[in-house]
Backbone:
């Protein structure tokens, strides 16, 4: 059983689950992780397929085995809890700090053989295996917690886990892009209420990443400057959309936000990905992350649904042009009302916002913590 | 009061509402439409603004006046009902067949002066007026109806209204793209349950249309063929995703659909837009449209939420490459379950489907009507 030493005093211990999947324990107290998964062995689902949507040359993943997956179980049947006598979960140990394990119903899986998605697919592209990797990140063993309730120490451990996963997944030859994200709240389709996020490692550039890359590369070519640097300079200079800033990070409502509450959080000195953050940047992330999420829940005094996603530079391209930022998007526009992506947004990609970004930034700043 | 004669024996009569907006009555029995809007005059909201999202060079519309709009009123307060003594609605007449009126809280409005959105905006693009036009299309005066419950005659009248609006909006110099669509069901954010759709006429190419145009133009250049012709040829040849076909139209689940139930309906002889449909194509649309929507509601025996959108060629470009089709997308994946656009879809544009398109086509074909 290999124990690996990471930053911030974090150790990682890997174990194998009953169906061959890996679980990684990220610990800060040198815990020994020897518990064996005692559930009966089962087969892993087959790999899905990716088909090219010929109307826009975008891959769509079809993973038909996922329909039957577990849906909003009650707390006592929570599969992300530590195991206890009589109730064996995805985590064999009886306690944990942070764990990352391979998703039991993954949309994307490592391919059987050498695999590379074609670079410029067109109408004639055949369906290919849905290569990639899907992992689950449990932020804490406490079901009733939430990312914003974690201590700075815990958030630092989660960050170290994200960084470790990004570093390791980047070495897999079939991976093009790594995306840690969190869906929070039943309003955005969460099927497990335990505080957790996911990591999708894609074997292709996701469409929105590909588009951001194209625009950032054009900006670099035209101006000699990195786009996110210019964006952050504008946010600092205009000031009206900044929520909070510390020595190494800034949180702002973007100039053209698409959701009633959308927040971007970025290091002031831009880096390509989570791995490239230095020690000081890592240590000053937790305070701003926690504050921003507390402010978000404070706006209406209710638990806000959100999607929080790390945008990194792709693994093998565009690392000179794209910069790390964390995007938090909430569809709640008022206590009893959600913003839906209806015809204009869903079918045409044209976003209509009811709330001025400056107004939403003001509401977030006005929350008393 | 001008009365205009359209196809299929439809006449159009225009009237002005209390705030200067236009309402158009589409009739088939030569009705005289003289009712005056007796509500107190009110100011129209100001035009919103469009800001360029610098991360992907896409316009985002900010129309902050829309937060207060009416939300799911009960049937007796339905603003899309005909007016009656003591209850004055958006439609001054005491009955109607089909009406199209300017939206009272539009995201997009005609600009004050000569206006053209910049063609290749970048980071330095200033905010501009949210130019365009938003209209509401009432399919019937019957609150308890639905598009699928309309008679063939009624659907033919709605089609004539869509065609007339497309033709007229195409003449406005600030309009680049015209998109009739319908949001159906509270699950997709409908705020009025009366059977109705909308028309958004954009002063810019919506991002998804721009992307489809780019891909279709590349296909035309590389192969000499129109992309949608090739797509329909493949659907006919493979057959497994075809739901129904008549002499002039085909309905199929697309090869790489993004939603549990997604249906595309297109004329077999492709045309650029609704205006270009010939008489026979117009007359054979209603039977296939009605059948497909009946099948959709039949799959689970429940009223399905959907977004139905007409994709047309843009007004001023790409008319050689893009072809008309009607896209119906439903997020219901099982009787009690919806598909949500969570992290992978919302933040990265990478769609994960739980259901094979062939399987969903089979379910739609298996419905007994």
Residues:
């Amino acid at each position: 059983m290999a124990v690996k030493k990471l930053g911030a005093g974090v150790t990682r211990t890997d174990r194998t689950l009953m169906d061959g999947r890996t679980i990684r324990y990220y610990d800060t107290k040198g815990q020994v992780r020897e518990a064996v998964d005692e559930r009966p062995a089962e087969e892993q689902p087959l790999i899905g397929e990716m088909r090219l949507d010929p109307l826009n040359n975008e891959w769509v993943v079809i993973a038909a085995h996922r329909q039957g997956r577990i849906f909003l179980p009650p707390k006592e049947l929570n599969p992300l809890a530590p195991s206890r006598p009589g109730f064996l979960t995805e985590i064999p140990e009886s306690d944990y700090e942070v764990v990352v394990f391979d998703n039991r119903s993954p949309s994307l899986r490592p391919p059987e053989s050498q695999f590379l998605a074609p670079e410029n697919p067109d109408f004639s592209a055949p369906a290919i295996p849905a290569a990639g990797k899907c992992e689950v990140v449990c932020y804490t063993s406490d079901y009733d917690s939430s990312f914003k309730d974690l201590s700075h120490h815990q958030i630092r451990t989660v960050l170290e886990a994200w960084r470790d996963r990004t570093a390791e997944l980047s070495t897999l030859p079939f991976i093009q892009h790594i995306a840690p994200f969190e869906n929070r709240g039943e309003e955005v389709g969460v099927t497990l209420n335990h505080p957790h996020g996911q990591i999708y490692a894609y074997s292709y550039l996701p469409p929105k990443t590909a588009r951001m890359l194209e625009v950032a590369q054009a900006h670099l070519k035209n101006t000699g400057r990195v786009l996110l640097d210019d964006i952050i300079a504008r946010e600092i200079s205009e000031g009206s959309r900044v929520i909070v800033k510390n020595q190494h990070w800034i949180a702002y409502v973007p100039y053209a936000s698409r959701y009633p509450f959308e927040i971007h959080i970025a290091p002031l000195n831009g880096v390509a990905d989570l791995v490239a953050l230095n020690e000081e940047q890592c240590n000053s992330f937790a305070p701003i992350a926690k504050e921003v999420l507390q402010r978000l829940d404070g706006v209406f005094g209710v638990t806000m649904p959100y999607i929080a996603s790390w945008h990194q530079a792709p693994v093998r391209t565009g690392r000179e042009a794209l910069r790390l930022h964390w995007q938090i998007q909430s569809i709640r526009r008022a206590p009893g009302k959600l913003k839906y992506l209806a015809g204009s947004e869903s079918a045409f990609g044209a976003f209509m916002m009811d709330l001025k970004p400056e107004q939403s930034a003001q509401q977030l700043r006005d929350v008393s913590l």
